[in-house]
Design a protein that fits this description.
mainly alpha
C-alpha cells in the first residue's frame, strides 16, 4: 500500500489518511470499551 502513496496527489492522500485514522480510533475506542470495560 505504501508504495502507491507516492503516486497519489495530496488532495486524495489526505482525506484517505484522515479516514484511516478516524476508523482506527473508532476501532481502538470500541475495543477498549469492550474489553477494558469488563474489569
Amino acid at each position: 500500500m505504501f508504495f502507491a502513496l507516492d503516486f497519489l496527489p495530496f488532495h486524495t492522500l489526505y482525506p484517505l489518511l484522515g479516514l484511516y485514522i478516524h476508523c482506527s480510533v473508532r476501532v481502538f475506542w470500541f475495543k477498549s470499551n469492550t474489553f477494558g470495560g469488563l474489569k
